[in-house]
Specification:
Blueprint (H helix, E strand, L loop, with lengths): L12 E13 L4 E13 L3 E5 L6 H8 L7 E6 L2 E2 L5 H11 E4 L11 H11 L6 H10 L15 H14 L4 E5 L7 H18 L2 E5 L3 H4 L4 E6 L2 E7 L3 H12 L4 H4 L2 E5 L2
Parallel strand pairs: 2-11, 3-8, 3-9, 6-7, 7-8
Antiparallel strand pairs: 1-2, 1-4, 4-5, 9-10
Helix pairs in contact: 3-5, 4-5, 5-6
Length: 267
């Protein structure tokens, strides 16, 4: 697949990666997790990242979200270049302007559901919007659980609390790693609908990593990662077309087929 580069104005771009490399150095070998990834994601877009285990998709998410520092290249979120930020400044930027949904939930065990949701705002010295909190709790089926501790939640409930926490600060970008992994199909569909609707209403960009073709099909664009590069892209995906994309990779339509930069993802 040949990828054409288009010009996108700065105000339209929410996430920009330019020639991003990430190398992990072991005792005897180097692992090249990302090999020169360039992409632009439009503000308000919903993009799914798929790929086989070890392809680099989680590393891509971590570098784009400022959780990991690229070996080389630039990462810009909004108009903020993350590359040169100090660790403290990067922590504050993530807390104030980026939302995260982790596969492992990362809830604080001694805090209630409400306290876990409010935590990013409280750490930043901001006053929680209880009306917005109630709206999220209702949309995620968590009303009545505000005072419950994480240890008394099911896996699906804990995941929904993590999603509420990610959305509570109204971040510019939400990065989600397998956001429906612990949910049944009905709850998963509700969560994806909420992510889509919230992104549309708040102008948020959503980037989700998933292995589920049905989840990827809810996105506007799918990026296929293989051997640390963007091997292919798919617009207006369906579950069938995502499966075909993955199968094509397994039959030789690998990194050389479409590696390169991706502009305007989510269009």
């Amino acid at each position: 697949m040949t990828t054409t580069t288009t010009t996108t104005t700065r105000t339209d771009v929410s996430v920009r990666l330019t020639d991003v490399h990430k190398t992990y150095r072991g005792s005897t070998t180097e692992v090249h997790a990302l090999r020169g990834v360039s992409m632009e994601l439009r503000k308000g877009s919903l993009t799914a990242v798929v790929g086989q285990s070890g392809s680099g998709k989680s590393t891509l998410l971590n570098c784009a979200a400022g959780l990991d520092v690229p070996t080389s290249g630039r990462v810009v979120v909004g108009e903020q270049d993350l590359t040169g930020l100090s660790p403290d400044a990067l922590t504050q930027f993530r807390r104030d302007r980026i939302g995260f949904v982790f596969q492992a939930y990362n809830l604080i065990g001694h805090l209630t559901v409400a306290e876990n949701i409010q935590l990013p705002l409280l750490l930043g010295g901001r006053t929680p919007d209880l009306g917005w909190q109630a709206q999220l709790l209702t949309a995620l089926g968590l009303r009545g659980l505000e005072d419950r501790l994480p240890g008394h939640l099911s896996g699906g409930q804990a995941q929904r609390v993590a999603i509420a926490r990610a959305l509570f600060t109204r971040p510019e970008v939400v990065f989600a790693d397998e956001p429906t992994g612990a949910l049944d199909s009905r709850s998963g569909e509700q969560v994806l609908t909420l992510l889509r609707d919230t992104a549309a209403s708040l102008g948020q960009t959503v980037v989700l990593v998933t292995h589920d073709s049905r989840v990827a099909a809810t996105a506007e664009r799918v990026l296929l990662i293989a051997d640390g590069v963007i091997a292919d892209t798919l617009d207006a995906p369906t579950a069938e077309s995502v499966n075909a994309l993955m199968l094509g990779l397994g039959h030789g339509a690998g990194p050389g087929a479409g590696a390169g930069s991706v502009s305007g993802a989510g269009r």
